[in-house]
Amino acid sequence: MKQIRLISGFFTVGFWTLASRILGFLREILLTALIGPGPVMDAFVAAFRLPNMFRRFFAEGAFNAAFVPMFSKRLEADENPQGFAQDAFNLLALAVLALVGLALIFMPGLVWLTAEGFYGDERFDLAVDYGYVVFPYILFMSLAALFSGVLNATGRFAAAAAAPVLLNIFACTALIAGALSGGEVIRWLISVIPVAGVAQLALVWVATERAGIRIRPGLPKLTPEMRRMVRIAVPAALAMGVTQVNLVVGQLVASKTEKAVSWLFAADRLYQLPLGVVGIAIGIVLLPDLSRRLRAEDKEGARNAFSRAGEFMLLLTLPSTVAFLVIPNPLVSVLFERGQFTTEDTTATALAVAIYGIGLPAFMLQKLLQPLYFARENTRSPFHYAVVAMIVNAALAFGLFPFVGWIAPAIAASTAGWAMVVLLAIGARNMGDEARFDDRFKQRAGRIVLASIGMGAVLYMALQAFGWTLGVPGWRYLALLVLICVAAASYFSLGHLLGAFKLSEFKRALRRS
Question: What is the pTM of this model?
Answer without folding.
Answer: 0.71
